[in-house]
C-alpha cells in the first residue's frame, strides 16, 4: 500500500526502503523523538519529504492532490481539536466537506459504542474529560470511513483499561471493514498484542521490521 524509496525529511527521517501493507495493522514503535509522528505526517501529506519518493498504491504521493488523498487517509493527531457544540456536532464535522450522506443518530450511537463513550449526542462536547474528547475525535475519524487510519498514540489521555478496549475495538473495526490501520505507540506490549507488523524506528531510521 505504501512503499518508501530513499526518503529523507530534514535531518529527522532517513528511510531507505520500507513497505506498509494494505489491510493490516501496523505499529510504529521507538523512543520519544525518534520520528514516528513525522513518518505518519508524511503519509497524508501534512508535510512533504525533501527527497526520494513514497508510493501509495503504486502512485507517487508527490503527484496526488493533498485534499483527495486525505479523503482516503485520515489522521487522528495526539491532541485532536474539539469544537464548541454538542457531541453530535463534533462527530459530524469531519464529514462536512465530504460527499457522503450524513449518518442517522442511530449510526452515531453505534460509533459512540465502538469508542466506548456512553453519552448522549446532545451533550456539550467541551465539558467532556480529555480522554472522552479523544474518543469523540476518534469517532469523528471512523465516520469518515477512511481507507487508511493513522493514529498517533491514541491512548495518551486514556487509562490503560480504556486504552486496551479502544484499540481492540479499532483493530476489530479495521479487520471487519478491510481497512488499514497505522498506529504510533510507545508500548511494545500494545504493538505485539494488536499488530500484524511492527516497524521500529531509531533516530529517524528503520532498525527493525517484523511480522507478528
Ligand atoms: N517541524 C519540525 N521542525 C523541526 N524539528 C521537528 C519538527 N517536527 C518534529 N521535529 C523533531 O523531529 C524529531 C522527531 O519528532 P517526532 O514527533 O516525529 O518524534 P516521535 O517519535 O513521534 O516522538 P514522541 O514519541 O515523543 O511523540 C524530534 O527531535 C522533534 O523535535
TrEMBL record:
Q: Which SUPFAM superfamilies match?
A: P-loop containing nucleoside triphosphate hydrolases
Q: Which domain of life is it from?
A: Bacteria
Q: Which residues form the ABC transporter domain?
A: 2-212
* UniProt xrefs under Pfam families: ABC_tran
Q: Which key words tag this protein in UniProt?
A: ATP-binding, Nucleotide-binding, Transport
Q: What GO annotations for molecular function exist for this entry?
A: ATP binding; ATP hydrolysis activity
Q: Which CDD domains match?
A: ABCC_MRP_Like
Note whether Transport occurs among the keywords.
Answer: yes
Name listed for the protein in its UniProt record: Putative ABC transport system ATP-binding protein
Amino acid at each position: 500500500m505504501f512503499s518508501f524509496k530513499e526518503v529523507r525529511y530534514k535531518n529527522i527521517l532517513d528511510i531507505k526502503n520500507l513497505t506498509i501493507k494494505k489491510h493490516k495493522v501496523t505499529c510504529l514503535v521507538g523512543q520519544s523523538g525518534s520520528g514516528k509522528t513525522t513518518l505518519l505526517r508524511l503519509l497524508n501529506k501534512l508535510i512533504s519529504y525533501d527527497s526520494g519518493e513514497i508510493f501509495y498504491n503504486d502512485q507517487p504521493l508527490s503527484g496526488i492532490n493533498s485534499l483527495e488523498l486525505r479523503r482516503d487517509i485520515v489522521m487522528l493527531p495526539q491532541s485532536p481539536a474539539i469544537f464548541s457544540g454538542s457531541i453530535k456536532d463534533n462527530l459530524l464535522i469531519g464529514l462536512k466537506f465530504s460527499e457522503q450522506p450524513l449518518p442517522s443518530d442511530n449510526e452515531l450511537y453505534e460509533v459512540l459504542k465502538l469508542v466506548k463513550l456512553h453519552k448522549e449526542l446532545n451533550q456539550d462536547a467541551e465539558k467532556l474529560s480529555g480522554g472522552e474528547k479523544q474518543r469523540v475525535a476518534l469517532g469523528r475519524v471512523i465516520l469518515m470511513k477512511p481507507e487508511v487510519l493513522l493514529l498517533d498514540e491514541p491512548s495518551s489521555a486514556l487509562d490503560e483499561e480504556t486504552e486496551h478496549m479502544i484499540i481492540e475495538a479499532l483493530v476489530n473495526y479495521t479487520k471487519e471493514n478491510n481497512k488499514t490501520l497505522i498506529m504510533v505507540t510507545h508500548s511494545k506490549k500494545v504493538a505485539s498484542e494488536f499488530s500484524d507488523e511492527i516497524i521500529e524506528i531509531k533516530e529517524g531510521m528503520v532498525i527493525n521490521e517484523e511480522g507478528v
